[in-house]
Amino acid sequence: MEVPTDETETFAVDKQTKKHTPLYHPNKSSKTKVSYHYNPEVANYHYGTLHPMKPFRLMLTDHLVSTYKLHEKMDLYTPRRATKDELLQFHSEDYIDFLQSVTPETVKRLSDQTLAKFNIGDDCPVFDGMFDYSSIYAGASLDASRKIIAGMSDIAINWSGGLHHAKKFEPSGFCYINDIVLCIINLLRIYPRVLYVDIDLHHGDGVQEAFYTTDRVMTVSFHKYDGEFFPGTGSGDEVGIGKGKNFSINVPLRDGVDDESYVALFKLIMQGVIPKFQPSIIVAQCGADSLGGDRLGRFNLSLKGHGSCLNFLKSFEIPMVVLGGGGYTPKNVSRLWCYETAVLTDTTLNGKIPNYGGTYQWFGDEGLHPELTGKIENKNTKRYLESVLQNSLEHLRYLDYAPSVQMYEIPPDL
C-alpha cells in the first residue's frame, strides 16, 4: 500500500513527513546531459511601468527551479555577456553602435527620422541598460550553443533567450538582439542542418527572415495568424525562396486553440519534418504567451499541453538548445518554464509548490498547474486544422533528401 504524501481534504501530513516529502520524482535513469544557462543580472532590467515585458519573470523562474531543487539535475552556468564582435555576426554595425550609445536621456534629442530608422517606440523603448540586458541574454544563448558543440551538453536551456522578432537592422516586438539567429549561426559552423521550432503565440519572423534563403536551416513556427495580429507575417504560403524554398513551414492558427488540437497537429507535422530534414540539432523557442490566460494571449494551452510538445521533440534524442520567448503573465511564465525544465530532466514535480524560500507567496494555493484552458472560444474547426496540416505536409513532399553541405558554408548575407 502506498502512503500518500500530498495533502487532501481528508488527509494531512505531519511536520516530520512534510520535511522528507520529495519535491520531485525522477521518471527514469537518464544519461542525458542537461545544462542550465542563467545570468541573474538579466532580471534586473525594466522596460517601463506599463510595458508588458517584465524581465523579473526570469528571476521568478529561476527561484521556482531552485525551490524544486531541479538545479541538482543539471550543470549550472553563469554565462558572460556577448561581445560586440559576436553581435555583429548577424546585426549591422550602425545598429549595434546605436544600442550601445543611446540612453533614456539622449533619445529625447534624436530626430524622428533616427527613431523611425531604429524602430524606437512603445513596443521597443529605450530604457536604462538596454544594451547590457540584450548582451546578457544573447550571451547565454551563445554559451548554450558552445556547450552543445563541445559535447558538454545534450540539452542546453536558456529561458532568458528566445527573442525571435529582432531584425538585422532594428529591434521589433520587445526584442533588441536576435539571440536565436546568433545561436544558430554558431551551430552552423559545426552542424550541417539546424531545425528551428517555435511555439510562441507570435510568428518567429526574425528567425525566418534571417534564414529564408538557405536549406541548412528549417524554420517551423506555430502561431496565431489573421493577417493583422503582430507581426502580421506567418501565413502558410511563406515557404522560403531560392535554395531555402520549402524550408520554412508556417502553421497559422486561430484564437482559442486547445491542447488536444495543438498537440496533435504539432506531432503530426514534426513527425513529417524530422525524418525528412534529418536535423543535426534542434533549437526550440518555447514562448509562454501561447498559454491560456496570458496577458497578450489568445490560445487555450495548459502547461502540460505546451510541455508535451517540447517532450515530443526531446523524444527524438537529437541535441537541443531550448530557449524562452514571449509570456506576459509572469507567474504562469515561471510555472511553465519550471515545468518544462522538469520535462527536459525527466522529472515529475509535486503539483503543490513548496512553501519556503519566498517563492510560494507569488503563487498561493493554485499550485504548479492552475486552470488556464477554456477561457477563449476555439475558432479552429476540424476542417480548418486539416487544411493547415495538409498545407504544411505538402511542402515536405518537395524535400526528397536532407541537404548535404560543405562545412565551411555559412548561409549568405548573414
Please describe what this structure looks like.
The chain has 414 residues and is an alpha/beta fold. The protein contains 13 helices and 10 strands. The protein has helices spanning 15-20, 56-67, 84-87, 93-101, 112-117, 130-149, 179-188, 205-210, 259-277, 303-314, 330-344, 360-363, 382-396; strands spanning 24-26, 34-37, 75-77, 155-158, 194-198, 217-224, 248-253, 281-285, 320-323, 347-349. An 8-stranded parallel sheet has the order 3-2-4-9-8-5-6-7, sandwiched between helices. It has a two-stranded antiparallel ribbon with strand order 1-10. The longest helix has 20 residues, at 130-149. The radius of gyration is 21 Å and the shape is globular.
Defining traits:
single chain, 414 residues, alpha/beta, eight-stranded parallel sheet, two-stranded antiparallel ribbon, 13 helices, 10 strands, 11% strand, disordered N terminus
SSE topology sketch:
Blueprint: H1 15-20, E1 24-26, E2 34-37, H2 56-67, E3 75-77, H3 84-87, H4 93-101, H5 112-117, H6 130-149, E4 155-158, H7 179-188, E5 194-198, H8 205-210, E6 217-224, E7 248-253, H9 259-277, E8 281-285, H10 303-314, E9 320-323, H11 330-344, E10 347-349, H12 360-363, H13 382-396
Parallel strand pairs: 2-3, 2-4, 4-9, 5-6, 5-8, 6-7, 8-9
Antiparallel strand pairs: 1-10
